[in-house]
Amino acid sequence: MEINTEKNSYTLMFAIGLVVIVGTLLAAVDSSLKDKIRVNKLLEKQQNILYAIGINENQGNSVSFIAADKAEQEFKKYITKQIYIENNNVIEDKDAYLIDVKKEKALAKDPDYSRKLPLFIAEKDEKKLYVAPIRGKGLWDAIWAYVSMDENMTIQGIYFDHKAETPGLGANIKQRFFMDDFIGEALLDSNGNFKGVNVSKTNLDPKNNDKYDNEVDAIAGSTITGDGVTAMIRSDLSLYQSYFNKIKNN
Amino acid sequence: MGFLSKKDAKLISDPLSDNNPITVQVLGICSALAITAELEASVVMSVSVLFVMGVGNVVISMIRNIVPSKIRIIVQLTVIATLVIIVDLVLKAFAYELSKTLSVFIGLIITNCIIMGRFEAFALGNGLWRSFLDGIGNAFGYAVILIIVGFFRELLGSGTLWGIAVLGDPIDKTGLYALGYENNGFMLLSPMALIVVGIIIWIQRARSKHLIEE
Known about the structure:
The complex is a heterodimer. Chain A is an alpha+beta fold.
C-alpha cells in the first residue's frame, strides 16, 4: 500500500511518533546509565582534588590522574578532614566534597543566603594542604578549579577544568604549562592582603621565577578565558581568607 | 577497492578530491575554523563526524520513504541530535576520559552542515549501502581538510604537533627559535583557518582546472 506522505494528518502523526520514539529512547538510555555517570563524576572530582595536592601520575608534560579505581581509596587516605565554612562558622562534614559549588554560587546572589564554602584538608608528607573548589566563567561556559594552598595561602597545586572553552586556545588552561605556573604563587601580597593571581598579558616574567608578583603568563588567543581565571580566583578564593587568618592566629 | 563497484568507489573517492565538502561545496566551514588550532582536536572531530555521518546516513536512508517532505529537515536534525546525545551518554558511562575530550565537539557536530547536506542531498534518495559509503566518504573528505589545516595551524602557531614541541622551546630559545624564529600567534585565531582553507582551495583549483567556475 502506498502511503501519502504529503497529507497534513500524516505529517502530524509522523512528528508525534518521532518525538515519542526518540523521547523514549533517550529517556531509557539516560536513566539506565545515570548511576554509572554519577559515580564517574564523583570519581573525577576525587581525582581532581587529589591532582591538586600532587597525587597524580604525571609524566613529562602529560596531565594524568590517579587511576579511577584507586581514587576513592587514596582520597580517604589523604583527605583527612572535610569542612565547610558558613557565616564564619567552621562545620565539619565528611561529605563536604558533595557540596555543589555551582548551586551555592547561584544561591549566594541572594544577600540573605549564607553560602557554604567547602574546604578539604589533606595531609601529605607531614604538611597540611587546604583544597578549595572554585568556579567562574570562561568565554563560552563555566570554568572551575581545585586549588590546594598551604596555611599562608600560597598555591601548592591547582587543577583547572572547563566545560566548553575553545580547543587549542582557552581549553589549554588544563594543560601542564599553564597549571604548573601557579604552583608556588602567593595569593596574598606582602602586607597580607588578598591579591589573587593575575593571568597577565603584560607579564614580564614568562618563566615565572618571581612567585610573589601575583602574576602568571597568559595564553595567546585566550584573553577572555584568562580573565575568567583571574576573576574566579579573586572572587572565590578571597572568601576563604578569613578562615586562613583564623588558623594562623591560633 | 575490489569489493566495491566503480560507482560505489566513486562515492568514497569523489569527496576526497573533486567534490570535497569543504573546499568545493564549501560546507562545514564553521567547524573547520573553530577547532583546527590543534591537530589532536581536528582528528577527534573528524572521527566523531565519521561516526555520525556513517550511522546517520543509514538511518535517514532507512526512513527515507516514510518521511513527510515538509518536516524532513526537522527529522534530520532530530536524528543527528539523538545519535550524538546517545554517543555522549554511552561514552560518559563507559569511557569517561574520552567523553570529556569530546564534549566540546558535541554542539559542533549537531550543527555541522555537511551532515545535514548529505542527509538532504543523498541519503533521502539512495539505498542503505550507498548512503553509508557516501557518509563515510564525505566524512573522510572533511577529515582530510581538517587535518591539513590543523597541522599547519598548530605547527606555525604553537610550534607543536599533537602537543609535542617539534621546533624547540620558544621561551628557552632552543631549536629553530635560537635562529630568531617566532611562533605566529595569528595562526591560532580563526581568520587564519579561513586563509589556510583558501590556500588549499587555490592549490586544488590550480591543479584541476575544471573546478573553476566561469
